[in-house]
Every structure is written in C-alpha cells, then in structure tokens.
Amino acid sequence: IGTVDNTFTFEPYSNTDTANYDITVVFGKLTINKIVTPIVITANSNSKMYDGTPLTDDGFTFTTDVVAEGDALIADVEGTITDFGTVANKVTGYRVVRGADDVTKNYTFGESVDGTLSITKRHVTLTSASDSKVYDRRPLTNSEVTVGGDGFAENEGATYNVKGTIIDFGKVANAFDYALKTNTKAINYDIDTVYGTLSITKRPTAIVYNYGYDVKPDTVSGFADEPYAKMSDPVRTGYDFKGWDAQLPALLPLDTLTVTAQWSLVTYEIQLDTFETITYTVEDHKVIDLNDYI
Fold this sequence. Notes:
The chain is mainly beta. It is built from no helices and 25 strands. Strand 20 (204-210) and strand 21 (218-223) form a beta hairpin. The termini are far apart. The mean pLDDT is 93.
C-alpha cells in the first residue's frame, strides 16, 4: 500500500519551438489503498470420544473473496485436550504472503474467532455372568465380567470382585464391585453395572424300596435334601423283617438310593399229642404226614 508520483518525460515534436510555450510538468499520483474489508479468521472446532490420545486441529477458515489472487493467508492455531471436557482452539497468529514476501499490511483483520475442542465420555457397560445348575450341595459362582458398550480405551480397564454365590434352590444376583486401574480416570467414562443371575434348580431323586423277592419295588420320589414320607416296615409271610441293607437318610438323597429288605426265616413248631415237636419254615419243601407220628 502507499502512493507514488506517476512520473513521465516528454519530447516536443520537431516542428514545436518550446520557446513559444510555458510548459509546466505536473506528476499524477498512483495510490494503492489497504483492503478495508476485514478478514475474520475462525479456528476449526472438533470433537471425539475419549481414546487416551490428545485431540488437536490446526485448521481454520477465513472470510472469502478478500485475499487477492496470488496471495496466501497462513494462520497459527493452537489447542489440545486429552481428557473429557472442552477447551478453546485459538488463532495465535496470522500473515499473508505473496511468494516469499509478507504482504500482511495490505489487509485489514477483524477479531479472530476461537473454535472448540471437545472430548466426550465413553459409555461402558459391565455385566457379570449368568449361570445355573442342578442342586449338588456345592456353591455356584461365576467370576466372569463382560465389558460392553464403547469399552475401555486401549490399555485401560478395571479389576473386578465378583461376590455372587448360591448353594440352595433359588436365584440370586451375581453382584460385583469394580476398581478402575491406576491409569484409568473415572472422569472419562460413564459406567453402568448389570448383575447376572445365578440359579440353582431342584434335583429330582428317589428312594427305591426293593423287597428282596418277587414283589414290585416301591419308589418314593421328590427332590434332594427335602423331607419325604417314610415307608412302613414291610410284611412277608414266613419271615421277620430285619431292616434295610442301608440306613435310610433323614432327607431325600442327592442321587437315587436303592435299599433292599433284609429278612430272617420264621421257624414254626408243631407240638404233637405224642409230645414230639416238629419244626419247619416256609422254605422247607416237604410234606409232613402226621400219621408218621401216631
């Protein structure tokens, strides 16, 4: 920008006698004015979900149709953020160049506009395992925890203390606690916990009463470790019941139990008029002819 004289020289025509003229030379002015339309530079805005790495963006925009053809506007933009939140992305400097020449003075600049850099939280769901089994007198546990949603950023995470346990018939929540690793900041996460379910189902079982001879066994069915109706002592002609070959449990057993009746022969006596005594059992396969004793 600036003003210079528009200088010139002249040469009279050959037939012109300068003695006949008073000639005054007046130089005009050549002026280049500063562009008054303000250029406003706006720093880029940007955002991303937290991933443990810094977010930067040195891009910018500026007022169009102002910078002359052949000129280039260069701006410095600075801003950085790593954790959840928002910071300004600022224009810290600018210049206009034509080749190697700085021509910034030829332009008018308005106040630059900051952009914003934002980090959003990761949404994580922690779900403990669900599991089930048939009752077996042993506790049911499952320490698995599944990470869902956006998950943790690389090399970040948590440790888990799963506390759910069940041993008897029913259902319980597979509750757990978690602790973030030392390199994992809570501010960068929204974490939901979901408890799985631990279930124990009843165990079908039975006691089979085998009478030890050609009579159909009786069966008492139910579920393990529950009360049951006790059977009356069996009766068998010619035998005394001595008990079962295994002790009957107070509650139904874990697995089907078969017990077999134990018998002893009854010995019968016949007193004859001759004062003799005859003995026999139901297992004696003989015919007694009382005439033999007359």
